[in-house]
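Assess this one:

_____
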Amino acid sequence: MGGRPMFVLAEDTERTHGRDAQTSNIDAGKAVSEAVRTTLGPRGMDKMLVSDTGDVTITNDGATILNTMDIDHPAAQMIVEVAESQEAEVGDGTTTAAVLAGELLAKAEDLLEDDVHPTTIVEGYARARDIAIEAVEEQVLDAETDDELLGQVAESSMTGKGTGDVTTERLAEVVVEAIRHVDGEDGVARDDVRVHTQTGASSSATELVPGVVTDEEPAHANMPREVSDATIAVVDEELGVREAEIDAEYSVESVEQLTAAVDAERRELESYAESLSAAGVDVVLATDSIADGAAAALADAGILAFESVDDDEARAIASATGASRSGKVEDVEDADLGRAETVRVRTFGDEDLVFVEGGAAAESVTVLIRGGTEHVVDELERALSDALDVVAAALDAGGVVPGAGATEIVVADRVREAAAGVEGRRQLAVEAFADAVDVLARTLAENTGMDPIDALVDLRAENESRDGRAGVIATGQHGEVGDPVEAGVLDPVAVKREAFESATEAATMIARIDDVIAAE
């Protein structure tokens, strides 16, 4: 090469490597973690998120905050993915996972400055994670997952979140009833619990509907508003005058010909109602449009019809009622029809909602969320969705553990004890992992107004005398150290397990990066 430099990367490529790359990535991860840290726990603060179009979201839900933030840094985006993974798997614990990932990165940064190799940190963290998960499993309560326990799980997940003028106890009852409704021999059919929001009333009007609720309105004003013992057809056809498949022109030379053409169109539109009536249909949902003439004919036949029904809504109603979607009205047979106890249209302000209740084929239920404003309804929807997820996880994925930071204190102590048996510098990483877990309990205490250092000392001392059940209990405007089981603060074991796994995976992946190559 004659000593000449060889350029492999394009001129506009930006490269950061070595300690600079590690510092940049770790700082980005910590920054994202710090953004949600103050929202952790029952006394966590809210964040106001304003989009570039002026839309405002007020929430302390970690997943919502991280998903709404405009994040460009790839390492920071990996922390966001931790929250997304946590949300997708168990529906709660997103803030815990993000805060833990950030603390693991902070401890890794200290180790790197002490010349501990990234691979050693990764190995130590992996060992500590396994110990942590074992400790979590040992904390599972030997108690029947009855409605009272599930209600405590639901309340724990909603405490500190915006629920308007309705208590978390009342909402927990709705959540438990919904999950019990879809709990079968094959486990909880979580997808059969739908959530629908509607503004215009106080949050206390939130109710559980035994069926499907959807935003639709009758295709004609003269159609019935309620049908009992309903026979339902779902069709994927436009109920209108069929158009010729070829380009053609028709010449009308007399009034009689025009009248005949109009009569033919009218008969065609009326034929939809005749076919559906002959099939015994009381309610029809069309995923395409319904012509005015066809709607009028359906109304005259006493058929309740809805047009341009969203595909997802049509699928949900078909599933709940046992209907099969038909391509054409004329092909509808008895085997294609669904059944429901009641289909009724209720008016809320200026809007209509359709309630399909008592479906024959599935035990679908809908939580109808009410609230005075969009902000209240949106935050209540997030709270209830999390509660539904954690109650389902408690039933399906291994039970519950003490909440309020008690499990984290046990995990940190167990990992710290096990560190003595780890050889070499990996022991430093295991100890660092324990320190990172401690921060979760410290943050809970700090967010409830307690001194975090004093609280941590008290938690460790009480933990030894309370058989691992000392946590931060929010009382009034402050917090105190107490037994979370007695206080009814419980978390699904699946939430803890997933948080340790996802946070460790993200932190170790970022810590191993020593070269960032980015195209401009």
Remarks:
- The radius of gyration is 29 Å.
- The longest strand covers residues 338-348.
- The mean pLDDT is 84.
- Residues 288 and 308 are 4 Å apart (CA to CA).
